[in-house]
Design goal:
Chain B: Its main location: membrane. Chain B: InterPro entries: Spore_Ger (IPR004995), UPF0353/GerABKA_families (IPR050768). Chain B: It comes from Halolactibacillus miurensis. The complex is a heterodimer. By secondary structure, chain A is an alpha/beta fold. Chain A contains 13 helices and 13 strands. Chain A has 2 domains: 210 residues, no CATH class; 138 residues, GMP Synthetase, Chain A, domain 3, CATH 3.30.300.210. In chain A, strands 1, 2, 3, 4, 5, 6, 7, 8 and 9 form a 9-stranded mixed beta sheet that branches. In chain A, α9 packs across α10 and α11 crosses α12. Chain A is globular and about 90 Å long. The N and C termini of chain A lie far apart (100 Å). By secondary structure, chain B is of the alpha+beta class. In chain B, the strands form 3 sheets. In chain B, strands 1-2-4-5-3 form a 5-stranded antiparallel beta sheet, sandwiched between helices. In chain B, strands 6-7-9-10-8 form a 5-stranded antiparallel beta sheet, with helices on both faces. A two-stranded antiparallel ribbon of chain B has the order 11-12. In chain B, a hairpin with a 5-residue loop joins β6 and β7. The longest helix of chain B is centred in the middle third of the chain and has 30 residues. Chain B is elongated and about 110 Å long. The chains are: A alpha/beta, B alpha+beta. At the A-B interface, β1 and α2 of A face α10 and α14 of B.
Chain lengths: 386, 482
C-alpha cells in the first residue's frame, strides 16, 4: 500500500510536464528595445540576435548579426505582445542591453513605459536607458555597426568608454533612474544618443562594408529630466561639469591655455566635496584634482603654479556652467537638495516645498586643490622643450 | 617383540571413505606396508604435496612409538610431516580429504596439513593505483593475505577469527581486528551476522557484503572493499574490522564512511598541502560528476537569464538545427558513453583500441558534424565522465553514475529548483545511512572537530593529537541496533 502511494506520488511529479521550459533554439534573444511615439500610441522596435551569425565557430552566411522587428500598440506591453505576430520565435527579454526612447516620448514622460520594464518578471533591471536625439529609437536599433556585430553592445561599450575616459555620458540603468526619480532633492538624467550621417542607409549590410559606415552612433551629452519628463540637453562642457558635481569623473581631459600655448591635462583623479554652508542656499565646493600633463606646447616648468591655476579655472568654468544651466532650468539634477537633506534636515524641511525656486538662487564658492604629478614619459633626452 | 595391529579398525575407516567418495575419480588411497600393518594415505589427486609424505621417517617413528605401547602412535609419527590433528567421525574424514589435506589411516585416522595451494603470486594493485606508496595487492589466498597483514602489523593484539561459511563451498572467511582498538561489540556483531545467514556458496567478498549492510535501500556503498593491504592496515589501526574471504583479493572493511570512498591512501603519502588540494579537487569532482549535465539542462531550459549573453549566443547557435530536445541530447550522449565504458571494461584488450577509436569518432566528432548533438553537449558529457574517474573507489563512482540520471530528470522537470530539491533529498538520505551502526557522515555529521580536520583536507601528520583520528569517533558512537 505504502509503495503504491509513493509510486503514485512519483507519477504526480511527471504530470507537471516541463512547465515554462524553453529550448534555446525555440527562443529569440532580444538585445535592445526601442520605443517611439506614434499618433495612436507607441511603436516598439526589437533588436534580436541571429545566433549563428554572431557565435564563433559556426559557418557564417554574411547576414547581419541582428534583425529588427517593430510594431505599434496602444501601450508598450500591448505593442510587445502584438509583435509576436511577426516574430519567428518566442521573444526572450532577459538579455536586453538597453531601452531607448525618442525625444517626443521622453518629453511626454517615461514613467508609464518604465512601469512595464520594472514590473515584468522576465526582465533583469540592469539594463541602461537612452534618449535618442532628433531621430527615432527605431533608427538607432536598425543601425548596423562595424567591429561589434551586435549594435546594442557597441552602444553600451561606447557609453562605458565615454564614462570612463571622457565623462560626458553615464551608464544610467533603470534602477538609477527610479532612485533619482523617487529621491527628494535630486532629478534623474539620462545619456543621449545621436545619429550621424545617412541615417536611412545605416541598416543595410553595405553600410558596414565601407571603412566609414553610412550611419554612426554617437554617445551624446546628458538629457535633463524634471520628474520623468525630458526638459533639455546639457552641452558637452556642462555634461563634464555634471560629472564633477556628482563625483562621476573617473578620467577626463582639460585643455587650458597658459602663456599663449595650449596644454592638455589628463585628470587622473577628481574628488568633489560639497558642503552646505551656514549661509542658506550657499554651498562650499572643494575639489581635489590629480592631473598629469598629457600634451604640451609649453616648456617653462617654473610656471606649474600658473598651470594649476588655469586648470582650476577650467574645471570651475565647467562646474559653474552646469550649475548655471540647471538654475536656469530650475532642475536640481546634481542633488544639492538631497545634500542639504542629509546634512541639514531642518533647513531642508523649510525649503523643500519650493526647492525648485530656491534652487534658482543657490550660490557656490569653489576651492581647488590641484596636484600635477606626472609629466608623462617625456624627458630632456626624448625631446622635452627646455 | 611382536607388534599387534587392529586391522579391523583400519578396514572399517577405509571402507567408509571409499563408500562416501565412491563417485570421486580423483580419490587416491595408497597403502604402505609397515611390518604386519598397512598404513593408508588418502587424498585427492593434485591437492596434496606428495613430496612431503616422508614414508621412511614415518615408518621408523611409528614403529618406535608402537613399541612404547603408545596408543597415539600414528598421531606422533605423522607430526614429522606437518601440522597434525586427530580425526574421529566419518564426517571429519570427508572434510579433511575435501579440504585438500592428507588423511593417514592406521587403526585411527590422522589429518596432516600438507595441502598444495594453486594460487598466483602477490601481484601489483589493479584498482586503486598510486604514484607513491606500496604496490603489493592482496591475492586470492586467505593464507597469503593473512600473512601480508601480519607483516605490516607486528602486534600481538592483531586477531584473526576464522569462520567457514558457505554450506556447499566451505569457504574460509577471516574476521581481522586489532583487539582493544576495535570494539569487541562490533566484532561480535559481525561474526553473528555472518553466521546467522547460511549461504550456499561464497565466491567473492560481495556475497557477504550484503550481510553486513544495514541499509539495503541505498545506492551508496556502506562496506569498503580494497585490494590494498596498506589501506586495510590503516583501517585496523583506526579501529575498523576487516574481513578476508578466500578466493578474492578484495578484502572488506567496516565501518565505511562516505568520506572513505573519496580518499586515496596516497593522500597520506604525499605532502599535506598537496594532498589537501587534491582532496578538495576530488570533492569538487564529486559534484561535477553528479550535477554538470543537470545544471546545464536547468540553465539552458529554464534560467537562460543567468547565462552570460555571449555564452548564450554561442549555445543557441550550436542548438540551431539540432532535432532533439536538450534532455534527449543529454540522455543520448550519457547512455552512449555508459555503453562504451561498459564495453571497454569487458572487451579483451586486443580489441580495446577499436572501441576507443569508434567511441572518439562516433561520440565526439561525427555526432556533432551530423548535427545530432551540439558540441557543448559533448564537452558536458566528457567533463562529467572524466570527473567520474577521479574517485579512488569504484563503488562510489557507480553510485554517482546512477544518481546523475536522477538529477537530469529532476532538472528537466523543475530546473534549478529540481536540483536543489534533489540535493536536499540526497542530504537527508545520506544522514540516515549508517555503516554497521556508525553514521555514514561521521566526523561531518555528527560533527567532530578533530576528525573533520581530515575529511575535506588532509592535516599534517605531526599536527595531530592522534595519528588515526577516526578511532575516537568509532569508540564514541554507539553501535546502532537494527
Amino acid at each position: 500500500m505504502k509503495k503504491k502511494v509513493i509510486g503514485l506520488l512519483c507519477m504526480l511529479l511527471l504530470l507537471s510536464g516541463c512547465y515554462s521550459q524553453t529550448e534555446l533554439n525555440e527562443m529569440m534573444v532580444a538585445t535592445a528595445i526601442g520605443v517611439d511615439k506614434t499618433e495612436t500610441g507607441v511603436n516598439v522596435t526589437l533588436q534580436v540576435l541571429n545566433p549563428s551569425e554572431v557565435a564563433g565557430g559556426t559557418t557564417k552566411t554574411g547576414r547581419p548579426g541582428v534583425s529588427c522587428y517593430s510594431e505599434t500598440g496602444e501601450t508598450f506591453f500591448h505593442a510587445l505582445r502584438r509583435l509576436t505576430r511577426i516574430t519567428p520565435r518566442k521573444i526572450f527579454l532577459s538579455h536586453i542591453r538597453f531601452v531607448a526612447f525618442d525625444e517626443a516620448l521622453a518629453r511626454e514622460g517615461l514613467l508609464p513605459l518604465l512601469d512595464f520594464l520594472m514590473r515584468d518578471h522576465e526582465l533583469r533591471s540592469d539594463f541602461s536607458l537612452f534618449i535618442v536625439k532628433e531621430y527615432k529609437a527605431n533608427d538607432l536599433l536598425k543601425t548596423l555597426t562595424p567591429i561589434e556585430q551586435i549594435p546594442a553592445n557597441k552602444v553600451l561599450n561606447s557609453t562605458m568608454a565615454t564614462e570612463e575616459f571622457y565623462g560626458t555620458a553615464g551608464e544610467n540603468e533603470l534602477e538609477d533612474f527610479y532612485k533619482a526619480f523617487y529621491s527628494e532633492g535630486v532629478e534623474p538624467v539620462l545619456t543621449g544618443i545621436e545619429l550621424l550621417g545617412q541615417v536611412d542607409s545605416g541598416s543595410s549590410i553595405e553600410s558596414i562594408e565601407q571603412t566609414e559606415p553610412e550611419t554612426i552612433i554617437k554617445i551624446n551629452d546628458l538629457a535633463l529630466f524634471r520628474e520623468d519628463q525630458l526638459v533639455g540637453w546639457l552641452t558637452e562642457q556642462q555634461s563634464i561639469g555634471y560629472g564633477y558635481w556628482t563625483n562621476h569623473i573617473q578620467n577626463t581631459v582639460s585643455v587650458v591655455s597658459v602663456n599663449d600655448a595650449l596644454v592638455t591635462l589628463e585628470i587622473m583623479k577628481a574628488k568633489v566635496a560639497i558642503k552646505p554652508s551656514e549661509k542658506r542656499r550657499h554651498f562650499d565646493v572643494t575639489t581635489t584634482i590629480q592631473a598629469s600633463i598629457g600634451q604640451s606646447a609649453w616648456g617653462d616648468v617654473d610656471d606649474l603654479a600658473k598651470l594649476k591655476q588655469a586648470l582650476s579655472d577650467d574645471i570651475k568654468n565647467q562646474m559653474s556652467q552646469c550649475l548655471d544651466r540647471l538654475r536656469e532650468e530650475q532642475i536640481d539634477s546634481i542633488g544639492l537638495g538631497q545634500l542639504l537633506y542629509q546634512n541639514q534636515p531642518s533647513v531642508w524641511e523649510e525649503v523643500k516645498d519650493d526647492w525648485d525656486e530656491t534652487f534658482q538662487n543657490v550660490t557656490a564658492s569653489y576651492t581647488f586643490d590641484v596636484t600635477i604629478s606626472q609629466n608623462g614619459q617625456i624627458t630632456a633626452e626624448r625631446g622635452a622643450p627646455k | 617383540m611382536r607388534l599387534t595391529f587392529d586391522e579391523q579398525a583400519t578396514e572399517t575407516i577405509i571402507e567408509q571413505i571409499k563408500k562416501d567418495l565412491r563417485h570421486r575419480e580423483d580419490l587416491v588411497i595408497r597403502p604402505v606396508k609397515i611390518n604386519e600393518a598397512t598404513i593408508y594415505f588418502c587424498y585427492l589427486t593434485d591437492t596434496v604435496d606428495i613430496e612431503a609424505i616422508a614414508i621412511e621417517t614415518l615408518k621408523q617413528r611409528f614403529v618406535i612409538e608402537k613399541k612404547r605401547q603408545n596408543s597415539d602412535a600414528l598421531y606422533y609419527a605423522c607430526q614429522e610431516m606437518g601440522p597434525t590433528e586427530k580425526e574421529q567421525t566419518p564426517r571429519d574424514y570427508l572434510n579433511v580429504i575435501l579440504n585438500h589435506q592428507l588423511l593417514v589411516v592406521c587403526e585411527s585416522a590422522v589429518s596432516v596439513s600438507i595441502g598444495k595451494s594453486h594460487h598466483r603470486a602477490i601481484g601489483e594493485v589493479k584498482t586503486q593505483e598510486v604514484i607513491r606508496g606500496p604496490r603489493e595487492a592482496f591475492t586470492e589466498s586467505v593464507v597469503v593475505n593473512q600473512a601480508m597483514l601480519r607483516e605490516r602489523l607486528k602486534n600481538k593484539r592483531l586477531m584473526f577469527q576464522t569462520l567457514t561459511l558457505g554450506t556447499e563451498t566451505k569457504t574460509d572467511v577471516k574476521v581481522v581486528y586489532l583487539d582493544g582498538t576495535c570494539k569487541k561489540k562490533l566484532v561480535d556483531d559481525i561474526v553473528k551476522r555472518l553466521k546467522e545467514q547460511p549461504l550456499e556458496g561464497i565466491l567473492e567478498s560481495h556475497y557477504i557484503e550484503t550481510l553486513l549492510e544495514t541499509n539495503v535501500k541505498t545506492v551508496f556503498p556502506t562496506v569498503y572493499n580494497t585490494e590494498r593491504p596498506d589501506v586495510i592496515t590503516a583501517g585496523l589501526l583506526e579501529g575498523r574490522c576487516a574481513i578476508i574471504v578466500d578466493g578474492t583479493p578484495f578484502v572488506l572493511m567496516v565501518p565505511a564512511l562516505m568520506f572513505d570512498f573519496l580518499q586515496s591512501s596516497e593522500d597520506y603519502y604525499q605532502r599535506a598541502d598537496i594532498a589537501s588540494a587534491i582532496r578538495i579537487l576530488r570533492v569538487g569532482s564529486f559534484f561535477v560528476a553528479l550535477l554538470t549535465p543537470a545544471v546545464f539542462l536547468a540553465l539552458t531550459l529554464f534560467h537562460q537569464e543567468v547565462i552570460p549573453t555571449a555564452l548564450l549566443v554561442s549555445l543557441a547557435a550550436q542548438r540551431e538545427g539540432i532535432p532533439f530536445p536538450a534532455v534527449t541530447e543529454v540522455l543520448l550522449m550519457e547512455i552512449t558513453f555508459e555503453i562504451l565504458r561498459e564495453a571497454g571494461v569487458r572487451l579483451p584488450s586486443a580489441v580495446g583500441s577499436a572501441v576507443s577509436i569508434v567511441g572518439a569518432l562516433v561520440l565526439g566528432q561525427a555526432a556533432v558534424e551530423a548535427g545530432i548533438v551540439s558540441s557543448a553537449m559533448v564537452i558536458i558529457v566528457s567533463i562529467t565522465a572524466i570527473s567520474n574517474f577521479v574517485f579512488p573507489s569504484y563503488n562510489l563512482a557507480i553510485s554517482v553514475r546512477l544518481l546523475r540520471f536522477m538529477f537530469i530528470i529532476s532538472a528537466t522537470l523543475f530546473g534549478l529548483i529540481g536540483i536543489v530539491l534533489g540535493l536536499m533529498l540526497l542530504a537527508f538520505h545520506l544522514t540516515t545511512l549508517d555503516s554497521v551502526g556508525i553514521s555514514y557522515l561521521s566526523g561531518f555529521a555528527p560533527y567532530d572537530a578533530e576528525a573533520s580536520a581530515d575529511l575535506w583536507v588532509r592535516e599534517r601528520l605531526d599536527k595531530r593529537k592522534q595519528l588515526f583520528q577516526l578511532k575516537t569517533v568509532f569508540k564514541r558512537e554507539k553501535v546502532r541496533k537494527r
